[in-house]
Amino acid sequence: MQTLYLTSIEPQSGKTLLATAFGQLALSHGKRVAYVKPAGDNENADNEFVSKALGIDKITDKTNGLDPLANSLRENTDLLIIEGSTPNNPKEVESIQDLEPKVILVAWYQDDADIELIAQKAAAYNKFFGGVVVNGVSQLRMHEAEITITQKLQERDIELLGILPQDRVLDAPTIGEITKHLDGELRYFPEKSNDLIENIMIGALALDGGVYYFEQKPNKLVITRWDRPDLQNAALETDTKGFILTGGEGPIPYMEHRVQEHEIPVIIVDEGTIAIADKLNGAFGRGKMHPDKVKQAVSLVEKHLNLSKAVPIPMELG
């Protein structure tokens, strides 16, 4: 059995999503995978999701220590993925030494990667350190990041496994999450509340009939007043997944029929368009796990990461 240990500098850096993606890639190569997250560091919804994604009946807390757990898994596991707590528990760091894991550090990129903190982490894990994955780099800064981060890590003899770009699917909230964020009422087709939304468009900005404007972005919710069927009709001619109707009212009868015909949900809110648009600024970002996010993460890992030196089984990645 081989062991992969994921750690990070700060919470919500993408460890759980990457652990699931690594696990699915290993499964696709016929490997038997187990996944462990520290006791006391559990997000129950995420744990349930990861267990289903990897075909694990139950994610086991390491309350009795890693050695007994690893021994219990050894006969039926090819790859044990451990998602470390953040910040790392010193006892946890010490306890993984006997497992001789490959350690991957997931570093979230903001204005810059904190090279000194990365170097400290690498030194702490010493010979077990496998490399760094830099996550969340905007497309506009990818080229700059590839040059500067690679150079700085090479100067410290730290392996860069790859740089993952920001991605609309990974940042996307669900319709249900948006409804909750806006304190709105979800009307029609509640079964679509788990659909991801990549874009928001404001109907009032549409000119010349609106269709050309709405065609510019796919997989979107459109914000418009409840009494603007002209804009709502134009949006329905494009890839619109639902409406946010402002002003506290539902659609007029004709548009209600059209919404039912297109099978799209409607979120009804009391506030005006500008207030709702401002609120939505905080709805996108590092959110909950979702099957489409895992699928996208697997694709990004295959495209952008070279894990051959860090993943100790032949997964043909990178």
Structure description:
This protein is α/β, with parallel strands linked by helices. The chain has 13 helices and 11 strands. It has a 6-stranded parallel sheet with strand order 2-3-1-4-5-6, with helices on both faces. Strand 5, helix 6 and strand 6 form a beta-alpha-beta unit. Helix 1 packs across helix 13 and helix 10 (229-236) runs parallel beside helix 11. The protein is elongated, with a radius of gyration of 23 Å.
CATH topology of the largest domain: Rossmann fold
**What number of domains?**
2
Silhouette: elongated
Number of strands: 11
Strand content: 15-25%
Q: Structural class of the secondary elements?
A: alpha/beta
The span between the termini is 22 Å
Instruction: Calculate the mean pLDDT score and round it.
Output: 84
